[in-house]
Amino acid sequence: MLRSIKALIGYPIRGTDDTVGKVKDFLFDDEKWGIRYMVADTGGWLSSKKVLVSPRFLDAPETGGDEKDFPVKLSKEQIEDDPLLEACEPVSRQFEKEYARFHNHGYYWGDKGLWGVGMYPIGTLRQTPSPAEVEDHNVAVAEIEESHVRSASEVIGYHIVATDGEIGHVEDMILDTSMWRIRYLIIDTRNWLPGKKVLVDIDWLRGFDWATNTADIAMAKDQIKDAPAFDPKFPVNRDYEEQLYDFYGRPRYWK
User: Fold this and answer.
1) CA distance 239 to 227
2) Contacts of 168 (CB under 8 A, 6+ apart)
3) In 7, 40, 61, 227, which residue has its Cα 20 to 30 A from 180's Cα atom?
């Protein structure tokens, strides 16, 4: 089934014996577009504990009127004992940690202040790094780039770069819960007034640039702007998909 990732954020997680936490995010790889982990927030009102749950233990989310939950084939204890988010962080957060380590300053997250422990970005300038330290830093950044693990919540909002310029932003992502794979980007083309929302197959994406917060798509702005409009109030159905692939003249993924 095709589901909006934004709509799934906040779903209560139902384990085999109890409800535990809520869906916080999804981590995916930007090579095969597979969901590698659901991020579950199992903390309380005043705390946050983010753990990773593999799709191997996920069932399709349930909806029925006001009843919404995300079934997981693990007990409450097993979910709470899963690896913490730090075990497999998105590319951007890994880079931020490496940047802070290299420049010898603290993290801006993890405390109440705007800049971590305080309200102002106060820091000391580190001494000029040695050639060996620079080399170590470059190696670490290269390794981070190769990890390809990204946060769906972070990518939502990235600007869209077509072959002939920028158009709109990533409004949402459509998840195929039968394969646990990203299937589509929902693009808001509001750069073109009055604008509309359209779907683009994730396989037509050249890639994300985490340094510039952009998504590079191998098609022109007019192709995106003139695509069949998508109404996020309704689920993606096969009739719309047929219309979409006819417009782009691309082969259908289900064939």
Assistant:
1) 14
2) 159, 160, 187, 188, 189, 190, 191, 192, 195, 224
3) 227
Note whether residue 142 is domain-resident: yes
Contacts 24+ apart (CB under 8 A), 228-236: 228/198, 229/196, 229/197, 229/198, 230/186, 230/196, 230/197, 230/198, 230/199, 231/197, 232/4, 232/171, 232/172, 232/186, 232/197, 235/2, 235/3, 236/2, 236/174, 236/184, 236/199
Same domain as 171, residue 144: no
Q: Is residue 254 situated within a structural domain?
A: no
pTM equals 0.83
CATH code assigned at 168 = 2.30.30.240
CA 26 – CA 188 distance, rounded (Å): 21
Number of domains in the chain: 3
- Please give the structure tokens belonging to residue 30: 């930007």
Per-residue pLDDT reduced to its tens digit, 235-248? 899 999 999 999 99
For residue range 147-178, what is the model confidence (pLDDT) as tens digits? 778 899 999 999 999 999 999 999 999 999 99
Question: Which residue, chain included where needed, has tokens 């604008």?
Answer: 195
Cα-based torsion angle of the residue sequence 130, 135, 140, 146 in order, rounded to the nearest 10 degrees: 160
Shared domain for 127 and 169, answered yes or no, is no
